[in-house]
Amino acid sequence: MSKVLVFGHQNPDTDTITSALVYAHLKQQLGADVEAVRLGEVNNETAFALEKFGFEAPRLVEGVEAGAEVILVDHNEFQQSAKGIEEARVLEVIDHHRIANFQTSDPLYFRAEPVGCTATILNKLYKENGVEVPANIAGLMLSAIVSDTLLFKSPTCTDQDVQAGEELAKIAGVDAAEYGLAMLKAGADLSDKSLEDLLSLDAKGFEFGAYKATVAQVNAVDIEDVLGRQEELVALLTKDVADNNLDLFFFVVTDILNNDSTAVAVGAQAEAAAKAFGAEIVDGRIALPGVVSRKKQIVPVLTDGLK
Amino acid sequence: MSKVLVFGHQNPDTDTITSALVYAHLKQQLGADVEAVRLGEVNNETAFALEKFGFEAPRLVEGVEAGAEVILVDHNEFQQSAKGIEEARVLEVIDHHRIANFQTSDPLYFRAEPVGCTATILNKLYKENGVEVPANIAGLMLSAIVSDTLLFKSPTCTDQDVQAGEELAKIAGVDAAEYGLAMLKAGADLSDKSLEDLLSLDAKGFEFGAYKATVAQVNAVDIEDVLGRQEELVALLTKDVADNNLDLFFFVVTDILNNDSTAVAVGAQAEAAAKAFGAEIVDGRIALPGVVSRKKQIVPVLTDGLK
């Protein structure tokens, strides 16, 4: 019997990579034969967190084999998961997203909670199973919470995330605010990134009604680092829309200091997407004041607006 | 704001009815404004349990309104749920079935575990939330576990179900084996049922690949109580298949004393269904030795066999 693979979504972010490592640790403590793996490159922010707490990135896999036993963390929608997931056996899911395009033929352990971060749920699972959280594992969970909640400022952030963050910072022996800002800035450093890189860094596929869309998000300290190259960006998005037969590519740049976003939308549903936010496309941009959360402030709006 | 409705599946069984009552109780203890309701008639077995522990059946509802806030127990597939569920807001799901044909636009609390009964999960939730289980609520949960596991004999029954059952019997102040058998026998008393009643008593809709199917199950002490009227039964199933455009009606009679089942299948996929079990249709019947669980021994086989 091969090991059970634990992994998060494609184009992995900090919550996805660390949650795979953390949940694999917990399952191992409970006697399971599991391995954390990843479906894509580790971004700068995650690399910063892994280095800080002394972890290597999990092994990269291309897809999963038919019949393989897997545990999904930080996602459930099959189009965001590993190649071949439809033919795998999903044993467990630990997630904090909407549920869609997911199905199994057998009962499973599925634990989703409407909190800001998968790590907040994992922290509970350590307690429920009576397993102590080591300092370096606490550091990974704290990193995930800081990343997903933009240092507790996102509207997705719940009291449970704040409490878990405080608890975990203590165990990890770091100052959450200081460490967190350093980590976010490492992630928002786009100087070594091409526009192609930015397109896939944190892109997720969605189906909104009959429409096929990609919603990508990048964090920046200065949004002009990205949008200064708008013409080139639109050309790349247009190509991606054509290549992948999309109805919409919704590319969001989030200002992590001011907690606002600006989007560039391409595809037949671009106007409709702007309208869904009660906004207009001005100079090719859609202003999204106060919007920082794809999950809570973007996906539900597009789901309703494009159906 | 109207109350949040808590309900189980159509053609309710004991786990569905009692789980709605029990989870509504827990949520009320936690300060939520919720009401348990039901989507269909209460069967004889459930009526026996409700009377034993002093409960009225929950209010019957036809469907839910657009935007209504709901909590689903003991199911997640929309075709097994309330009319209008697609337009409702599902806040939570507590379930122990496979996940399919379920989706939301927002994150939610979704707790599914591969155990024999929803009540086993609810018993944990009382503990996790630090709420004491009253004796009558314990009686309802015990009834659900006995029903879903056929007195701990079904292959769906896990150690967790056995442990919860023992714990709850103690709190409820009853002997699990003695009370359980009396309850199962009350449910298997088919003397006041027409064949039409039996068809819908515990029927659930499924999609197996491209095929639309209904899988119904009735418990009996003597299967000839039902199959003695086989010709009439086949005529009814045939009409149901035509009326509802089904590819398969798979009607299962389970012998609760010997823990075997016999099925009658009607529709274009009837032969394929028998073949999925490595069986043949003999005198219009498919023998299913050792099969008692729709979830674990029937649905997965049909899912694989008809895809």
Automatic annotation (TrEMBL), chains A, B:
It catalyses: diphosphate + H2O = 2 phosphate + H(+). Residues 180-306 form the DHHA2 domain. One of its GO terms (cellular component) is cytoplasm. It is found in: Cytoplasm. Its EC number is 3.6.1.1. Its main location: cytoplasm. Mn(2+) 2 binds at residues 15, 74, 96, 148. Mn(2+) 1 binds at residues 9, 13, 74. Binds 2 manganese ions per subunit. Keywords: Cytoplasm, Hydrolase, Manganese, Metal-binding. GO terms for molecular function: inorganic diphosphate phosphatase activity; manganese ion binding. InterPro entries: DDH_dom (IPR001667), DHH_sf (IPR038763), DHHA2 (IPR004097), DHHA2_dom_sf (IPR038222), Mn-dep_inorganic_PyrPase (IPR022934). Its cofactor is Mn(2+). Belongs to the PPase class C family. This is Probable manganese-dependent inorganic pyrophosphatase. It comes from Caryophanon latum. The gene is ppaC.
